[in-house]
Amino acid sequence: MISLPEDDATAVDRALEAVLTRLTERAIPRGSSALALVRAAGAATAGGKRFRPALVVTAFDAFHGDRGRAPGLWDVAAAFELLHTAFVIHDDLIDRDTERRGVPNVGGTFRVHARSLGVDDAEASRVGDAAAVLAGDILLYEAARLVATADIAGDQRIPLFSLLDDAVLVSAIGELADVEQAVVPTEPGTAQLLSTAHDKTAVYSFCAPLAAGAVMAGADDGDRAVLMSVGADLGLAFQLVDDLIGTFGSAMQAGRGAGADLRESKRTPLISFARESASWPQVSSALAMAPTGPIAVQAAQRELDASGAREQLVTLIGQTLGSVRRRAAELPPTPRVLIEQLADGIEGRIP
């Protein structure tokens, strides 16, 4: 949707490298396991799209922030990348994943390490889980430390901490709700699922980084309130498109096997819409078979499509992005263009 120019991406990466260098220097005297933990956390930060730092920087520029007077911009942008990485590490642990995009994640790396020391599989899993918890915790703290020590105006620090605080709390609440909704015997309602979709993504991926850039640029309270509002809807739309991708997207688009959400029997707003349709008996039967293989996944995709649930979700995404565009009209011209660009990018991801 948006990305950082090469020079800006380099500045963010430099801020991240400073964090990892500091951690490495502190870990070396504490032994090989401490160093391995820091290196695994560092590997988790590598290769990302830097989407959230891009939102911080582009929002700052959109509100005509003066980079010469905001040397802490890169640290704050990097803080949101660390926050994202911490959430990814913890999310993999919650989902019991040991790889990300075909490469061992923190938990997977430490499982291999433990087995190399002669530890059995059960205890190796315990070591891997502990490493994932601790690596994520370290990066959460480092995100907060970057905001605390960034070279920014004194009156900006409390608003930035407030944004970081909301991002951590709301995302944690959303992740817990997601896990609960996956295991409770009763099917969660559409409203619950939509609330969870918002909480998992919107605040930390859109509201907080957009508003952080605006805070540092000196945007007024009214414009920042609009950004929080449109960020909430952008985040919801983004997550709903992710649900469509997880069900109907290609393996390349999803970054995992096609129809992964169907194979994992995920409860999403898409499935909730299908449950409300007259076709639910056929859909339900197809979904029950989806974990058995790709042919069954394709059958479930066809039944979901035929039920009207896919069209209904696409309509909801369009309505949500329509609300974004209407609200964005209240912003000055350059921020308005940024928000419209983000809305267009989300819409363009719909499979």
What order do the helices and strands come in, and which of them pair?
Layout lengths: L5 H22 L4 H14 L5 H12 L10 H22 L4 E2 L2 E2 L1 H11 L4 H29 L4 H30 L6 H28 L3 H28 L2 H4 L5 H4 L5 H7 L4 H10 L4 H14 L1 H20 L4 H16 L3
Antiparallel strand pairs: 1-2
Question: Rounded to an integer, what's the Rg over CA atoms?
Answer: 21 Å
Any guess at the CATH architecture of one domain? Orthogonal Bundle
Side by side, the strands of the main sheet go 1-2
Q: What is the CATH superfamily classification of one domain?
A: Farnesyl Diphosphate Synthase
Low-confidence stretches: none
Through-space gap between termini: 15 Å
So how many helices? 16
CATH topology of one domain: Farnesyl Diphosphate Synthase
CATH level 1 class label of one domain: Mainly Alpha
Strand count, sense and barrel status of the largest sheet are: 2 strands, antiparallel
Structural class: mainly alpha
Order of helices and strands: HHHHEEHHHHHHHHHHHH
The count of β-strands is 2
Helix content: over 70%
Strand content: under 5%
Mean pLDDT: 95
General form: flat
